[in-house]
Design goal:
Helix 7 (about 215-225) links the parallel strand 8 and strand 9 (about 235-240). The protein has one domain (about 5-315): Alpha-Beta Barrel (TIM Barrel), CATH 3.20.20. The protein is of the alpha/beta class and about 325 residues long. The protein has eleven helices and ten strands. Helix 5 runs parallel beside helix 6 (about 190-200) and helix 10 packs parallel to helix 11 (about 305-315). An eight-stranded parallel β-barrel has the order 1-2-5-6-7-8-9-10, surrounded by five helices. Bound molecules: flavin-adenine dinucleotide.
Length: about 325
């Protein structure tokens, strides 16, 4: 079922999660172990992230270095199909521009369509670690906007291969990313919102936000979106603080601010066990306030914190 249909069928705030594919070599059971403890809260959907290749330099005989492309985690098509086969839940694969030609994207989307996977989150993806800025694949998309356009065209029965006859249109419900604290490359929040609106006008149906730890940032972002004619559901993304190190890692990777009160509470912790507790309590408070504001869904970035997410969900849902 399309996610927007699920959202419009209820007035309640729904529960959803995002998971990471396991490292290559691990079994699908490691995914199920992360989902099982959360199924009692009836997630509306499970997002599965996509991780593009990285380049490493391997020392070869004679001392020269060979640049080798490696992928540490498998793709999302098989994982999403396995999740939907096991649980009564919609699995949402993240589709990224980076590393794919338009043809490869079309083929992946055709596979998803055959598997009955009707929801996707369309993203640009970040640059490869060794590159200073995002470089599209030759023949690939530069922005999520272009990817949304391609998916929307497939929804209208327009495929890249013009020779195709009697084409069955796909019926993807398309989600895109939004940034309450601005995407790090955007010169300002207004230009970021302009491009976010372009993704919606190109056919995207809902927005999932980057994590934030200060609800006011989300409320202000939603208002700005609404003032700029963005009317689709805006799903807040939440993460639990887990370790002290995250005080520097999260702002560095995700370009977000840690509120003073949370910062002080984490700094005062003796160890990461205490930090986890602070993270859970903070997330419960955030969730309850967002629920009171009638948000469509609370989306949790579980990232190996299924047990902590369970504790939050038990208090909130
Ligand atoms: P875009 O919407 O393309 O925006 C990128 C930047 O370009 C922004 O600054 C925007 O303002 C600007 N811009 C957009 N369109 C245009 C245009 N036409 N002309 C000029 N400027 C433009 N990454 C992964 O690799 N895998 C994942 O699974 C993944 N999941 C994510 C899930 C969520 C909910 C979020 C919030 C992020 C996720 N990311 C993931 C990270 C994401 O790929 C990065 O944040 C990336 O840098 C931007 O992706 P985007 O889709 O927002 O890009």
């Amino acid at each position: 079922m399309q996610l927007t249909e699920i959202l419009s069928n209820t007035k309640k705030t729904l529960f959803s999660i995002e998971i990471l594919p396991p490292l290559k070599g691990k079994s699908i059971q490691s995914i199920f172990d992360g989902i099982d403890p959360l199924m009692e809260f009836k997630p509306a959907f499970v997002d599965v992230t996509y991780h593009r290749e990285e380049y490493v330099y391997k020392k070869r005989e004679g001392g020269y270095l060979e640049k080798v492309s490696i992928r540490k985690r498998p793709g999302t098509v098989g994982i999403c199909a396995a999740i939907m086969n096991k649980y009564p839940v919609e699995a949402v694969p993240h589709i990224i521009c980076g590393g794919f030609t338009k043809e490869e994207t079309e083929n992946a989307l055709i596979d998803l369509h055959f598997l009955g996977i009707d929801n996707v989150l369309a993203l640009r993806g970040d640059s490869i670690k060794t590159e200073p800025a995002f470089v599209p694949e030759p023949g690939g998309h530069h922005y999520a906007y272009d990817l949304v356009q391609q998916i929307n065209e497939m929804n209208q029965g327009k495929f890249m291969d013009e020779e195709m006859k009697e084409v069955e249109p796909t019926k993807f419900c398309i989600g895109v990313a939004g940034y309450p604290e601005k995407h790090f490359e955007a010169p300002n929040l207004f230009s970021d919102i302009k491009w976010l609106k372009a993704k919606i006008d190109a056919g995207a149906n809902y927005i999932v936000t980057q994590m934030f730890f200060d609800n006011q940032k989300y409320f202000d972002f939603v208002k700005l979106c609404r003032d700029n004619g963005i009317t689709v559901p805006i799903i807040p993304g939440l993460k639990m603080f887990n370790t002290k190190k995250q005080l520097t890692i999260l702002p560095k990777i995700f370009h977000i601010d840690i509120p003073q009160e949370l910062y002080e509470a984490v700094v005062a912790c003796k160890d990461d066990k205490q930090v986890k507790e602070v993270g859970i309590q903070w997330c419960i408070k955030q969730s309850q306030e967002l629920m009171k504001a009638n948000v469509p869904c609370l989306h949790y970035y579980t990232m190996g914190t299924a047990e902590a997410t369970r504790r939050v969900a038990k208090e909130v849902f």
